[in-house]
Design goal:
With about 290 residues, this protein is of the alpha/beta class. Strand 2 and strand 3 form a beta hairpin. The two termini are about 35 Å apart. About 45% of the residues lie in helices and about 15% in strands. Helix 9 crosses helix 11.
């Protein structure tokens, strides 16, 4: 079993609301993020934003700040290119120190919270033959999620605006060699654990399905501290692959486990937020949610 981790002792806000409440608030936050991005140059006021979203200023301010921990005005500052560039520079100094010390990344300085087990080539080729998988849908702070897992760990976690039939269809196709069973109650409990803040040490395990190169990139990505940002080039250096940033980007595109393998912490070299498999608004919301209190 591989033992690589996401950081355990990052200072991030505790979750104060049940997931279903937080999920309901996320829709308003996502709409606000979409509008603020589209009108970033205009620096819209709270009054303008509330009018555009057809809600009151007080409700918007209260909901956004309660969910995100920062005001809409502060969010406008966070999504600027200069903020991203400054964050990358700060992270670069941390990475340089870690790599000079012979570490793969800054997360090595933290206690382990996640353990990972990579599937064998035979298991991948047979589409999970011999595995017993449970799966289900549930609420998260970022909308609905589909999650699947075996006794060895979570093998899929995807984020959506609602239940989608094609998600289950793709899951059944990719894992047609495995025994599959829906388990809604266990899925809800596992999602509660996955989005707890902070993650409880040693409670979550991941089952990775990918090539050796992809697994190296994902393991390196889990070393990036919540709230931090890295580029594709920095991530490649952390993984020790020596590969071009396009190859690193391809590995991230194959990641089936949202949030816990944090692709949302990777942006482009010039400070552009880039794309995200589960939506750019959700990527920004994830980064916002991980900001220090």
């Amino acid at each position: 079993m591989l033992h690589h981790s996401a950081p355990a002792n990052a200072t991030i806000r505790p979750m104060s609301e049940p997931l279903h409440s937080s999920s309901a608030h996320y829709r308003l936050v996502a709409d606000a993020i979409h509008y603020l991005r589209a009108h970033q140059r205009e620096q819209p006021s709270l009054e303008t934003l509330a009018r555009a979203l057809n809600t009151s200023e007080s409700h918007l301010q209260r909901t956004f700040s309660s969910w995100a921990g920062v005001s809409p005005k502060r969010f406008l500052q966070i999504i600027t290119r200069q903020y991203a560039v400054d964050a990358l520079r700060a992270q670069a100094s941390v990475l340089d120190a870690s790599l000079d010390a012979g570490l793969s990344g800054p997360g090595r300085l933290h206690d382990l919270t996640l353990s990972c087990d990579a599937m064998t080539p035979g298991e991948i080729a047979s589409h999970g033959k011999g595995l017993n998988l449970n799966y289900g849908w549930g609420d998260t702070p970022f909308g609905m999620a589909f999650i699947a897992w075996s006794s060895r760990g979570i093998c899929q976690l995807s984020l959506h605006d609602g239940k989608l039939r094609d998600v289950e269809g793709t899951f059944n196709e990719e894992w047609h060699g495995a025994t599959r069973q829906e388990n809604r109650a266990a899925a809800a409990a596992l999602l509660e654990q996955a989005f707890a803040k902070p993650l409880e040490r040693g409670k979550l395990h991941l089952l990775l399905r990918g090539t050796n190169f992809q697994v190296k990139v994902w393991e390196a990505l889990m070393q990036v501290t919540p709230g931090r940002l890295v580029t594709y080039q920095q991530l490649g250096a952390m993984a020790g692959t020596g590969q071009a940033h396009r190859a690193v980007g391809s590995a991230m595109a194959r990641n089936r486990i949202a949030y816990l393998i944090p692709c949302h912490r990777v942006i482009r070299q010039g400070g552009d937020w880039g794309n995200y498999r589960w939506g750019l608004e959700r990527k920004l919301a994830l980064h916002l949610w991980e900001q220090p209190a």
